[in-house]
Amino acid sequence: MKPGAVIGMVGGGQLGRMSAMAAARLGFLVHVFSPEQDGPAAQVAAYNTVAGYDDLDALRRFAKAVDVITFEFENLPAASLELLESLKPVRPGAKILAISQDRILEKQFLNDAGIATAPWAKVESLAELEAAAARLGLPAVLKTTRLGYDGKGQAMLRSAEDLAPAFERLSPKPLVLEGFVDFGMEISVMVARGVDGTIRCFDTVENRHKHHILDLTLAPAPLGPESLQTAQSIARLVAEKLALVGLLGVEMFVTAKGDVVVNEIAPRPHNSGHWTMDACPCGQFEMHIRAVAGLPLPPAVRHSDAVMKNLVGPEDMALWPEILATPGLIPHHYGKAEARPGRKMGHFNRLFPKGALPGELGIEDALKLADGSA
Ligand code: AMP
Question: What's the pTM?
């Protein structure tokens, strides 16, 4: 695609916003399709369609107005996706979306590719849950197969009494029971694959969560070379097996023994890739747009180590003026009008010379604001 071409972006949140900004830098125009007026992506896009994801007429007009379609929101109705695919190239494609939308298809795909996941079982009835819990052991994590994110749609089962209430509460069925992974670290890798099959993996990073929401990303993850490499190989294999065109995040657990198991995949830019915006010559959003637009993919090298800190809800946004006043913090605001609790409002990156990412004790210091607050 040449400058001036139009990229259709389904979804209007911060991932769409930062993709649109990267697209603009490459000379592309972005057309956002989202039910929300003036959302984070719409504010920076050339064109906007405000309509529901099931509005087939609006989707048809949108597809006709763009050259290629991508998305930052995975839970599109199947009929909508089918319609879009019949009209324009959709990258990544519908098959990848279907797999990543459904935890059972996702785990089946990963296991078929020889990639380890937590042991799991599909659960349609309480009797099946009891049998699965007996087989996998407790503790275990019961999850909805669809529409779960940031710890929503899941329940930790610690004892036999937890089974029935969790089964009742979670819907829609079927559910999936996962054996509990006693992990030492949560990590992720962003991988891109171009139209020509070139694969680029960003470095393996550590992710730390607070109240089930990503809080910090440390790049690179403080792990031995073997685990770092295993994570990269898994991400590469996922991209190859899916014949990905676009960008995809692979979330993984590292066990105490150093084994790497995949938790889930997300076929879009990912919160745990935000560090790349400032620590890599070509960050995840530019890589995403390049892959979608059929441009060459530059190496996913990093020039700096980085810590990314998410700004969530009103508490974190109260720090915004102080963040701006602190030298060395690179701020990113998502343009959301209202800071509701738990809502991702922005993030900042702090860079370090390569190899100089502070150790455990230095991380807190590295995130101190100019007024000395944390
Ligand atoms: P998810 O919605 O699958 O990304 O899960 C949200 C969080 O719950 C993960 O980031 C983990 O911290 C935790 N978690 C999910 N599945 C498991 C598991 N099988 N074993 C241990 N912890 C888990």
Answer: 0.96
